[in-house]
Each structure stands twice: as C-alpha cells, then as structure tokens.
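Local shape tokens

___
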Amino acid sequence: MTPTVYRTAGTVVTVTVGILLGWTAAYQLPGSQKADDAKSPSQPRPVGDTLTGELTSTSQLNANDGSRYVRLPVKFDADTFVRFELEGALGGTLTLFDDNDNLLAHSSAPARSAEPASDSPAVSLGAEIERTGTYWLAVSGVDSDSYGPFEVSSGTLDVRNGGDLATEDELTGFFTGDPNAYSLDVEKAGLYRVTMRSDVVDAYLRLAGQNVEVSDDDSGEGVTGRDAQLTTYLASGDYRVEASAYGDTTTGEYTLSVEPQPLPAGDALRNEGDVSPSDELTGYFNGDPRKYTLNVDDVATYTIDMRSETLDAYLVLTGEGVNLVDDDSGDGYDARLKGILQPGTYTLSASGYEAGTAGMFTLAVATSSADALSDEARRIEGVGRLEDALMSDGAKDYVWHIDEAGRYAVTMRSSELDAFLKLTGESGVALSDDDSGGGYDARIETNLTPGDYTINASGYEDGTGRFRLQTEKLD
C-alpha cells in the first residue's frame, strides 16, 4: 500500500459519498494495489468454517479512525443467506464486500473492547447472496485501541424476512438494519401468543389489525432478558406483525412464532352483556373498554373486583346518579369498586389504565346487606356511637343533643368511602372536615355549649357505603 493510493481512495469516497463509504473504502480492496496482504489467507474459505485471525499493530490501517483490520476471502454459492458472528473479547465490526468492491453488509452496535465479553451484544452480520463467487469479509477494531485474536463463525440460514406468517408457525429471520414485516391470517378467533427471541438483538414486536394495536419490548425474557412477547385476543382476520430491534444493535438473527393459547379452565370469554350478583367472568381487553349491564333489584352493598396479571385494571360504574371510578383499590394494580346501590340499571366499564395495553381479566360481583337507620334512630344523646350506610341518594343528617358545655369531638370512619363531616348548631357553629380523622376518615373537634346540633355525614365526591359515627367529650 502506497501513501498516494491510500489517500486518494479515502479522500474521494469520503467527500463524494459520505462517512460510511469513506470508512469502508479505507479497507484494502481485492484487485487493487492494497490486496497484497501477506497476513490474509490466499485461499477462500467455505461457509461453515470458523475464521480466525488477530488484529495487531502491523495489521492494515483504517484511515478514518486509526483502527486496524484484516480481510478474509470466503466463497459463497448463489441463492443462499450467509451469517457471520464475531466471537471472543475483541471489540470489533464485520463488513462484507463482493469481488467488485461493493459493500454488501455491515454489522451494527459493536461492543467496545473495554466491556466484558459476557455483557456485550454479539456482533453479527448477514447477507443475501445472489451469485456464486469469492467475497471478502473484513474484521475491524472499533477504535485505535482494539487489538487481539478473534474468531468468526460462519454458516447459512433458511430465513424468512417477510411474507406470510401462520398460527402455530415458527420461522428464523435476520435483521440487516430495517424492521421485517409479516402478514398474519387468523382463521379462528382466540387467544394467541406471538414470541420473538434473539441472542443478538433486543427484540421488539408490534401487532396491528382488526382494531388491535399492541407492542412489546422485553416481556418474553429469554436467555438475555430481551425477548419480546405479546399475548392477545385476536378476532378472525388479517394482521400485520412487525419484528424489529430496540436500541443500537440492528443486525442479527431471531426466531418468530405464533401459538394459540388456552383460556382458563372451563371459561369462555364474556366481553359484554349482563352481570349479576355472585357473578364471575373472564374477559379480554385490547383497546376498547368492555361494557357490561348491572341490574340492581334491591338496595345492597356491591363490591366489584377487576383482577388481571397483565393489565393495570380500571373500572367505571355509572347509572342512577352514580359515577364511581377506581384504578388500584384492589391488590397491586387490581381495581375495586364498593358502594351501596339503589335499584336500577347501571353500566360497568372494564379497561386498562394505560393506552396500548391488552390482556385477560377477571370480573367478580359480590353483594352484602346495606340496612340504613330510620329517621328516629338517627339521634345521639351526648356521647355515643352508631353505624349507618350512605346510599346513592346523598348525605344524611343526625341530631346531636348536648346537656353539658365542654370540648367535644365527632368522628366518621369508613373502609368503603371517603368520609366528609359538617357540624352546625348553637352559637353559630358551622364546621366541616374531610380527612382529619386519619386516612380518609373525618373528624371535628370544637368547644360546644348545651343545645341541639346537626351532624351532616356524606361521602366525598358522592361516595356510598357503610360507616361509623362516634361522639366523645374530650375534657
């Protein structure tokens, strides 16, 4: 290699084509004066062999960054897809040229030599070979400090980087930089799991069609913890499945599969219709809220639970003047609504809190008695305690009679609603409180003279449910 040839090739390509071709042009090219490298094998190696070598300070120099490289001749048959993977601790890249010096493929996101090999993404390259002949594989360091021995495994793959994808199908694909798209035809509606696995790239999946649009990055876990997996209910019809790579590493091998999944034992999906007390059903959310009709015949306390292992559950109950909403009142991310409902018809909406999510859920409805005190029973003499229930028809008033002046407290406690208190009466007393009783309980403390007072008990934002009302003298 003479200085004149080296500068001319590097300068012309860099200026006219750009950084990438300037980098590749710095390699010695077959048929040029730079091809006389005694350290490169003279005989092409067949695909399937392990290619070995070493980058040293005497290896050929890349003009753009000062890194070193070695070229290895390889022989390919026509109509094959070839794969190379750089193994070992060397931080490097792979680049493939044909015998006319044309760039065919280049690996992405090489590991830096300072990173432990076990923590670094694999360096992988793949290319479709159209004609038989000798090609050149260049192994280069990622920077001027990259030296050492290397091994490059090679082989052919039967890849499908697009086209039709069937249920119960598994295929091998290879990224060469762009996402690969597949057409999925679902003949029978049901629950399906789409899984993308790779030891090289951080897998990323998208599925869209028939009003479904979901995506996933790392739910498949796998050996690297970076596999993608979608489990979703699919109606009959056509879908688009897009397999891509998340992050900087965008070249590499992966597998893609679609498998039907069984529903919970004995269950059929109920995504709409009537729900009744003591009812429990399995539904599937995939973007649109699932709406159910709840018919209430008698006054009762209703507890409605939405549980899911894959969704952040979200419940809304409307009707008969009621508007109840909940996100996480159940266990973990499960939703729970609890309140006293009057007879009538209600609409129950079950969905996921976050947009773009999908998954199975269980909806359960339970009831218990909700007896309320009569007007005559809503009277407290001095210090006392009573239990009552707030219905959907609003707040309740209680008469509180005091014979002795002093400092008093009234507390409203409930596990079913956000308590709210008002106290009015003698000497112009007009007080209110929301959460001074601790948590969502309400409490009012004040000095009172003898006379009659009115305690107004309600639920914040019109909540319903059972509660306890207690009065006490503090001095």
Residues 176 and 256 are 16 Å apart (CA to CA).
